[in-house]
From TrEMBL:
InterPro entries: AAA+_ATPase, ABC_transporter-like_ATP-bd, ABC_transpr_CbiO/EcfA_su, ECF_ABC_transporter_ATP-bd, P-loop_NTPase. Keywords: ATP-binding, Cell membrane, Hydrolase, Membrane, Nucleotide-binding, Translocase, Transport. The keyword Ribosomal protein does not apply. Belongs to the ABC transporter superfamily. GO terms for cellular component: ATP-binding cassette (ABC) transporter complex. This is Energy-coupling factor transport system ATP-binding protein. It comes from Spinactinospora alkalitolerans. It is an enzyme of class 3 (hydrolase).
Length: 272
């Protein structure tokens, strides 16, 4: 069932930059979608249309059956949680807990529900011990996790993560991967913008490549990363396993993750 339907979306900034030039994209409930493309391709501009930060210049966005045009950010916040790339655009309260609690309370959760969602979000992001700290006394990587926790606590059917792994260490990335798996298990639709192709290939069902404000490729990681012409147009490198397969001279390699690569290696060895 479709949860997000974007048709012929165009958007121009007041400066005159034409950031979106006819985006068509349909996303099903529960899908994990990675949006890739070089700086300036329009990924963030597109994502910010999903929670009403930007309104379409032309075209139409339907979210959970409701036309997003003219809907306030507050109204769309119940459906789409948007985790900013830069947490300082998002955090405002004096303690981590207050920041995280704000969302569910604002959406009308009762006391018990707000506390339960807040504690869960703090726990899965590893912030329980910092709950009473001021967000600005935390490291930039921790602040980014507070921004994530604040959105998780809203328990929206769609979550958009703008560059979730940037600046995060190995443990924090593992946590993000676990959170995406948990959200997927709950049926949440997860959309991530990322420059980390290995992360996209390993943890997403679908990859959408953008260039110059348009979608230029859309499919499974193997389908999209198997199109060197499209990757060149989007100015992104394929995942490391595919680069390795190319170096090894494998024809028609489709492995986008390490386990798939190992399977393919074994199959090729067995075939002599
Ligand atoms: N606030 C703004 N005002 C004017 N132009 C903007 C603004 N934000 C983005 N742009 C321009 O719109 C185009 C699309 O930018 P956008 O940030 O959506 O791309 P992106 O694919 O998300 O890039 P990145 O990977 O760097 O985040 C670019 O040409 C960019 O310079």
């Amino acid at each position: 069932m479709t949860i997000i339907d974007i048709q012929d979306l165009h958007f121009r900034y007041p400066s005159g930059v034409s950031a979106l030039n006819g985006v068509d994209l349909e996303i099903a409930r529960g899908e994990r979608v990675a949006v890739i493309g070089q700086n300036g391709a329009g990924k963030t501009t597109l994502a910010r249309h999903l929670n009403g930060i930007y309104q379409p210049g032309r075209g139409r966005i339907t979210i959970a059956g409701e036309d997003a045009a003219g809907k306030s950010i507050a109204r769309l916040a119940a459906k789409v949680g948007y985790v900013f790339q830069n947490p300082s655009e998002q955090l405002f309260a004096k303690t981590v807990r207050a920041d995280v609690e704000f969302g569910p309370r604002n959406l009308g959760a009762d006391e018990a529900q707000a506390v339960r969602l807040t504690e869960w979000a703090l726990e899965v992001t590893g912030l329980t011990e910092q709950a009473d700290h001021h967000p600005y006394h935390l490291s930039p990587a921790e602040r980014k996790r507070v921004a994530l926790a604040s959105v998780l606590a809203m328990d929206t059917p769609v979550i958009v993560l703008d560059e979730p792994t940037t600046g995060q260490d190995h443990d924090a990335v593992r946590r993000i991967v676990e959170i995406i798996a948990e959200l997927h298990g709950r049926g949440t639709t997860v959309i991530a913008i990322s420059h980390d192709m290995d992360f996209c290939a390993e943890h997403f069902d679908r990859v959408v490549a953008m260039a110059q404000g348009r979608v230029i490729a859309d499919g499974t990681p193997a389908q999209v990363f198997g199109r060197p012409d499209k990757l060149a147009e989007a100015a992104v490198e394929p995942p490391q396993t595919m680069r390795l397969a190319t170096e090894l001279g494998w024809d028609g390699a489709t492995a986008t993750t390490v386990p798939e690569f190992l399977d393919e290696l074994r199959a090729r060895r067995a075939a002599g």
